[in-house]
Please model this.
Amino acid sequence: MARIDVNHIRHSYLPNPKKDSDFALKEVHHTFEDGGAYALLGPSGCGKTTLLNIISGLLHPSHGQLLFNGRNVTNLSTQERNIAQVFQFPVIYDTMTVYDNLAFPLRNRRVPEADVDRKVRETLDMIDLASMANRKARRLTADQKQKISLGRGLVRSDVNAILFDEPLTVIDPHMKWVLRSQLKQLHRRFGYTMVYVTHDQTEALTFADRVVVMYDGEIVQIGTPAELFERPRHTFVGYFIGSPGMNVLPVALEGRTAMLGSQRIELPGAPKAEAGPVELGIRPEYVRLGREGMAVSVSKVEDVGRHKVVRANLEGKEIAAVIGEDDEVPTEPRVRFDPAGINIYADSWRVEMGA
Ligand code: ADP
Ligand code: MG
Model:
């Protein structure tokens, strides 16, 4: 397996890109450590597939370099890079049996037939298709075909990295969960470098040790699931991760106080906000609803199982608060913000709180 350095990579699909918005990848500079399990998370169109295809060699970047274990591979073919890639939709040989589909990448590399058989059977068990080994792939359902695709990505153990591009889209929810757990086990057992692309935060947070969040052609934050939750670096990460997402409110700073309309909110420190509009971010889990604090008017209470989400209006702004499933909304509701959950943003980027 390999360490992958993405060095100042920019990519445009246009022949003569000029402005930033002509680039599908604005500038990506990041190291995927050898043996790391990464999720690449972001909304549709933010550049996830573009980045993955640049790593595998399906695309040549407009600018920048790609290194595997320190070696420049930018001009090497997909084959020479020795990467396994699983796509969103099945890529299989319809006329071959399930078994032969899985054996193909190994036989292609002249792996001895006894090893082929062992690896193929192991993989068949993992994707739960052992009973269909001798069936022609053409006769399988769409999600079975996708499992073969996944199996083809996992069958070789000599690859530099395994890249997954939203591989479970066509798989039913229960099987999704099973396969994701197996991928995670596989990672623990063999220590593959894995990059898993998804737009689904649950998928990203359960699969990866490190989540790389992308937005509009850029990486906006790399962190553990806990870091992304507690300290979103960009307001986009705050909105995108969490359900509901972080509350983001326009404020004015006065030392250790944030003014939200006529309300004064004491901060844990004096933020060093320099340029751009200032906002206060607080997750609904840190908004305390009770009889003390700032007056709000409640517009809606949603029961979502283990807790309730309260939608309220504070100083003309919509905010969400999470309360326990047995908690009630007081008749004259007020909210307090737990200082531990307060983040301050200037021009959408988090600023340090300061002393
Ligand atoms: P994601 O995988 O995150 O949904 P993509 O990497 O597929 O995003 O796309 C990033 C941007 O590049 C989008 O604006 C998309 O329209 C554009 N794009 C992707 N593929 C092509 C292509 N082959 N030609 C032109 N533009 C493309
Ligand atoms: Mg994509």
Notes: The mean pLDDT is 94.
